């Protein structure tokens, strides 16, 4: 779905079919888990109709470019661009794949939108991992950091696409999101705190508690010295790395600045209806990003319980 923030129009862009799913009868349509734009903002990579494959579109037109297939055997959870041509994907099958989308592919202009199929340049097991959950490219060190659901962070060389080391994290519970600061600091979202790691040593620098018990950190990003975290309770919080504390309200200094999401759309089952009177529902903030000016923030997510179906998107100014 593409929302134009100026015209307020919403467009649906079809998912791309893999060559192995010519009739779209595949069994792996499990949603999109990652949307990533390359540095020059000319290509967008995301999941294909088959959740084991990747799809690449041209920007700003969103014409189809290619589908990357036959690499992963399970859902692709995340991906990251290394530059304008090279892309890395990570999957629940514990594998990481390196793809190349050449300028020839990207520049093809067709009257009828068609896309080609490509294979991975390299496919490798991420050792000591169990389900690669999140990826980020550390440009300062030319490293790819991968987060796996068994509580490890893995460091790969972006130049050789070889795994260099793995480090067990203090918490093995719900390590689901990963971000990197330009200076090289990693942030990892866990069940009850955000862990800050020194990227040179992978040693913990600080545990930033979430202020809300049991909510889980579901998304994290750095914007200068501000760490923004989205939680499982529909709340966004802002941590000032220099001051070493959450941002205080300029109106009431005793209060912390938080953004609270609206309900969004939720389609409850009977269990939710039974408990609806006793609980206040909030969507989980699974992703967020700032615009180039840093004055607008996009947030999106949906229900955390697997028994609920729904979605949420918000634009903050």
UniProtKB/TrEMBL annotation:
Does the keyword Mitochondrion feature in the UniProt annotation?
Answer: no
Question: Record's InterPro entries?
Answer: Beta-prop_DCAF12, DCAF12, WD40/YVTN_repeat-like_dom_sf, WD40_repeat_dom_sf, WD40_rpt
Localization (cell)? Cytoplasm; Nucleus
First-listed, main subcellular location of the protein, grouped into a coarse class: cytoplasm
Q: What is this protein called?
A: DDB1- and CUL4-associated factor 12 beta-propeller domain-containing protein
First and last residues of every WD repeat: 69-109
Q: Which UniProt keywords apply?
A: Cytoplasm, Nucleus, Repeat, Ubl conjugation pathway, WD repeat
Q: Does the keyword Repeat apply?
A: yes
Query: Which pathway, metabolic or otherwise, does it act in?
Result: Protein modification; protein ubiquitination
* UniProt record similarity statement: Belongs to the WD repeat DCAF12 family.
Q: Which Pfam families match?
A: Beta-prop_DCAF12
Q: Where is the DDB1- and CUL4-associated factor 12 beta-propeller domain?
A: 2-316
Q: Which Gene3D superfamilies match?
A: YVTN repeat-like/Quinoprotein amine dehydrogenase
Q: Which PANTHER family does UniProt cross-reference here?
A: DDB1- AND CUL4-ASSOCIATED FACTOR 12 (PTHR19860:SF16), DDB1- AND CUL4-ASSOCIATED FACTOR 12-RELATED (PTHR19860)
The Gene Ontology CC terms held by the record are: cytoplasm; nucleus
Tell me the superkingdom of the source.
Eukaryota
